[in-house]
Amino acid sequence: xxxxxxxxxxxxxxxxxxxxxxxxxxxxxxxxxxxxxxxxxxxxxxxxxxxxxxxxxxxxxxxxxxxxxxxxxxxxxxxxxxxxxxxxxxxxxxxxxxxxxxxxxxxxxxxxxxxxxxxxxxxxxxxxxxxxxxxxxxxxxxxxxxxxxxxxxxxxxxxxxxxxxxxxxxxxxxxxxxxxxxxxxxxxxxxxxxxxxxxxxxxxxxxxxxxxxx
Length: 214
Hints:
With about 210 residues, this protein is α+β, with helices and mostly antiparallel strands. The chain has helices spanning about 40-50, 65, 70-75, 90, 95-100, 170-185, 200-210; strands spanning about 5-10, 15-25, 30-35, 50-55, 80, 120-125, 125-130, 140-145, 150-155, 155-160, 160, 190-195, 200. The N and C termini lie far apart (about 40 Å).
């Protein structure tokens, strides 16, 4: 039996990144997605919900998503899964990137498991399929819960927009192709949690997102 997911969004870092706590309602087993920083705030949310975190998931390697992952792994004693190995260079340079943006304490992150297209990730009884969706970063991945009809998309697509591609390793054409060929076919009813801003559905974006027309 698939589990029943619960979700809490914790905005972190000056970039107001949507760190997401996901857990199964019955077992309270969960994961932290994209702990970019503000770890005390993340741990307070974990405690408030009574979640037993079993892993950390990363959608990609940018500082606002991965900057706190190494320290949180030590605090919680859990492994890190994701992103795709194409983002290794971003994870290796997190201390320098953090210094450039005035974010203290960012450390190099080496995931316990790199993810690739077609892989599967479990969080307790919850199951996620992995899509490799490059363009915002070379190693961006999307976590898809086909049972619960929602996805964690990182900075691939937003409500009314798409991820920026002017950072090193970005490629706009590649990003649009990944969204149109991999993400949108998941179905109009699929809800998504982006890395910033409000949640949405793929159907809304297919019809109204100006970057996805034509």
